[in-house]
Amino acid sequence: MLRIGKLPISTFAFLIIIFPWVAHQIPGIEHYTDVMVFAGIYSLITIGLSLLMGYAGQISVGHAAFYGIGAYVSGILTARYGLNPWICMLAGISVAGAVALIVGAPCLKLKGHYLAMATLAFGIIIFIVFNEEAEWTGGPDGMSGIPGLSIFGFDFDSVEKYFYLVWGFVFAAFVFSVNIIQSGAGRALRAIHSSETAANAMGVNVSGYKVLVFVYSAVLASLAGSLYAHYLNFINPATFDLFFSIKLLIMIALGGMHNLWGAVIGAGIITFLNYEWLHYFEEFEVIVYGAILLVVVIFFPDGLAGIPDMLKKRLGKH
Amino acid sequence: MNDTSNENILEVDKVVMAFGGLMALFKPDFSVQRGIIKAIIGPNGAGKTTLFNVITGFFSPTEGTVRFKGQPISSLKTHEIADRGISRTFQTIELFGNMSVLENVMLGCHTRVRASFMAAGFCLPGARRKEKEIQERAMKILRFIGLADKCNDPADSLPLGEQKILEIGRALASEPELVCLDEPAAGLNETETHVASSLIKAINAKGVTVLLVEHDMKVVMNVSDEIVVLNYGQKIAEGPPKEIRNNPKVIEAYLGGDT
Ligand SMILES: Nc1ncnc2c1ncn2[C@@H]1O[C@H](COP(=O)(O)OP(=O)(O)OP(=O)(O)O)[C@@H](O)[C@H]1O
Ligand SMILES: [Mg+2]
């Protein structure tokens, strides 16, 4: 369950690399590459959330806020001040990281429902800021004119190019996170999940680790927000509302939060449902999400990524 | 280590621990010499576990201090105290149930071999090597406590007796100078109790000072060099097992009074 080998990671990288080409060959799904850009952006967030929730056992119902912070810092600094987008991306990461540190230190002392409520409140407050600080953010109408990304004269100006950029980041974040999980730091996170008392007694700085992983997940969410802003060139607060925070939770619950693959799988499936497959349901979309969450929680508590293990156990018994 | 054997590794100095109006500890005073096995006994609710919680930093005492190797530690956080070299087990088992037996012990090494988040993330060569080192060290401990063949089982799948032994193993993994064992023999059958006793002696033989809370008097009399008796948070007696056994105050506390 924990070991993530080199072979699956290479296979995954290979599939991603050929994806745009394959999508291009099959009529009717050419635009899937575009959808996959969003899947990648969401994966960045869910990878961090998986470490925070699945491994360290700390819930956050406010990660849309960090996603939004990244998007708005990038948006404001590039569109209003004309700064270099990459520097703005770093600025967004720093702001999100600092906010996570300030918010996380007191919040992560709380447990279970209380932590959920605190992060939820945080998410709502930031959402209100995006709406109300219209001078900076453009208010509910949003802000446009955010430039695209380029590096050394190379423009990420097509869907394919942006696809590779985003998934490059996802890949890096994935490998970095796998390395953490498979180290002493990852073991400490799981220990905290299992018994804070014992972890403390064994010398794990429990509150320190909790804040650290919270900051890490905020940084990834912020990075995702910046990538989103530079891709669409337009942002508005509705993207970063409470429902998005909840959708993130549905993604990792569906994929399986005890497994990093689950983060990517869940993000991928929900993105396709969102952009492609749920149009028929229109405003009943929410009900479908609710149903998914219900089915997963009841029948596949370890998510889709947990199914192989579940089958193995079942078969082993008979 | 190079200290003299007469040195006091731990000093409990007039510690008061009040929960509201309840004095769980009221100024017990005693010290623990390096290298010995010292037992703390007393009736239910006497304050034994509370004392462990004060020593290991889970509670900060209302009054008084605890000194470890001459340094006051009462203001330190639990994980900092663990860093200094005090380890413990719990009366009610606190294993990492979803982790394997091996991983439980590996986590115990946390204070000694530490991998930083960044070093781990970038998979620096040092991080890999450390991880290997930890695994070898943990396997050595598992062989010492006799659980090596179960290293890959989830910790919560072990029978109670082995879980207790595993907790001791995990506590040893941090290479403590002092280990506090809270009722290691509770709930064990006769053979398991025997194993636990020998293990405690073996740990001590390796130079680790042991503080032992235990209700099983056979174990206490068999392994300990000295005994402190608590009753209602106060120390009522201290001395070698032979003396304690015949101390009228102790007999009175156990048999008598208000029950
Ligand atoms: N966190 C706490 N809050 C309030 N009271 C507590 C707390 N911890 C312990 N106590 C009280 O302090 C007293 C001493 O408890 P403690 O657990 O230290 O006893 P003990 O000697 O370990 O008993 P046992 O042999 O049953 O384990 C008891 O009256 C207990 O109810
Ligand atoms: Mg007790």
Task: Chart the SSEs and their pairings.
The complex is a heterodimer of chains A (318) and B (259).
Chain A: H1 6-25, H2 32-55, H3 63-80, H4 85-107, H5 112-132, H6 134-137, E1 143-144, E2 150-151, E3 154-155, H7 159-181, H8 184-194, H9 196-201, H10 206-232, E4 234-235, H11 242-255, H12 260-277, H13 285-299, H14 307-317
Antiparallel strand pairs in A: 1-4, 2-3
Helix pairs in contact in A: 1-7, 2-7, 2-8, 2-10, 2-11, 2-12, 3-4, 3-5, 3-10, 4-10, 8-10, 11-12, 11-13
Chain B: E1 8-19, E2 22-26, E3 30-33, E4 37-41, H1 48-55, E5 63-68, E6 71-72, H2 78-84, E7 86-88, H3 101-108, H4 117-121, H5 125-145, H6 160-173, E8 178-182, H7 190-205, E9 209-213, H8 217-223, E10 226-231, E11 234-239, H9 241-246, H10 248-255
Parallel strand pairs in B: 4-9, 4-10, 7-8, 8-9
Antiparallel strand pairs in B: 1-2, 1-3, 1-5, 5-6, 10-11
Helix pairs in contact in B: 3-5, 3-6, 5-6, 6-7
The complex binds adenosine-5'-triphosphate and magnesium ion.
Please sum up the structure shown.
The complex is a heterodimer of chains A (318) and B (259). Helices cover 74% and strands 3% of the residues of chain A.
